[in-house]
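User: Quick one: structure for sequence A, then sequence B.

Assistant: Sequence A:
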Amino acid sequence: MTDRALDLDAVKAFVRIAELGSFTLAAEAVGATQAAVSLKLKRLEDRLGFRLLERTPRYVELSARGAGFLEHARELLAAHDRALSAVAATRQRLAIGISDHVAGPELPSLIARMNAQDPQLLIEIRIASSADLLQSYDRRELDTAIVRLHAGRSDGKLIAKEKFGWFAAPGWQHRAGEPLPLATMAQPCGVRALAGELLDAAGIPWTEVFVGGGVMAVTAAVMAGLGVAALAPRMLPFGAVDAGPRLGLPALPQLPVLLHTRVRDGRAHDALTALAAAFRSAVRG
């Protein structure tokens, strides 16, 4: 069977020509060139198998069959617009940025919880550093950002505070007399900066031996025995140990998880409330 699906842009061009009586005016109305509109109409006529318009040097008018097709064309475009409106009404988009130091192994279950709250919500999630996400949030590229506390910011709602430690692989030993080998996130990273400041203040020499593009890469380096890293316990595989007390490293403070959002009500707000509660539970757990 021959595929006789119609090009909606061509149908729209035909309707505009019929209504305006001019290829030039129709082209302006649909934001195209006159040549492009003429080509679309020719292809539509070829697909239908008959002429829609009669052209003369002075004017453009509908053919007999074109006049009969015009109402069907308008109905087709109206149905298309109704379908788009229905989807837009049910699929609200919510763009969320989550810091790599916050989005842990629980992320799939957290997304599932949001989806259960509203299956019609179109969820877009970006994982990056807190600094990058806050810049995107300020540029209104994100509706919401869930991040660590960032220097110079006083906004954001506290979701939870999370314990951090100096984690290493089981059995890993620091070689006496050598700088402390650190696995860190790439700049900019607030946790990386904090770890360096605490070690410097304590007079403990250190050196970066691994720089990862994400927490998963850093945890892999730790478990491979490259060194220690400042991480939240829930980010580490079972068996990782907090080597801080044994090595005499400075205690890491509890670091807050903050919610920055412009969403104040409606379905998206309900989904964010569910997400925040799930994060709070994951951090406490």
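Sequence B:
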Amino acid sequence: MGKCDQCIVREFSSLKALGKDELLQMADCKTSYVIKKGEPIFEEGESVNGIFCIKDGICKLSKFSANGKDQIVKLVKPGELLGQRSLISDEPANLSAVALEDMEVCFIPKTEIMGFFNKNNQFSMNVMKTICGDLKEADDHMVSMAQKNVKERLAETLLYLEDTFGKNQDGSLHIQLSREELAGMIGTATESCIRLLSELNKIGIIDLTGKKITILDRNKLKRMAD
């Protein structure tokens, strides 16, 4: 599974504050897993007891709402950490994390992380900044959900999926969400989401081929999102 000091997660996350010795210590205590598409990394309400480093693959963070629907709160890509908030607040996970494709993750136990937290000021600052960043994102998302209509939110989400996770060689969005998942991200019923997608398909803004979505007219989509 490789060394912690050469890992992508270290470059992009709070862990970049850790020194050589701390990284060696971390490499000794981590456990590496392969998580298959559709499997959970952890479930809502579970005690996580550490953090997960996403080395490869993408997962969705979601919450079950009262009506039994799965509301996607965030998508997480390689280089990010999961479980920082539960670690600090000492509470069970508020969200479930489920793999959208096969993933490689490493788990670092809480005892180790808290050791770094107490000794390395820059590391604890980084973790706090990450949590603050997540809060800011959640605020922005809440305002967008409240002020934009479903079509605007769909346009915004499709652009976000392309910008954040890129495209396949055929130009289609790399991340393939089911219609239910997409509807869950924009906060609407699956039927409405399907109807809107086919509308955008008809007027040539996107192309739908099976599960694949390709953005054909970025500018129009952008105007629609704003």
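Residues 46 and 110 are 14 Å apart (CA to CA). Residues 121-147 form the longest helix (27 residues).

User: Thanks, that's what I needed.
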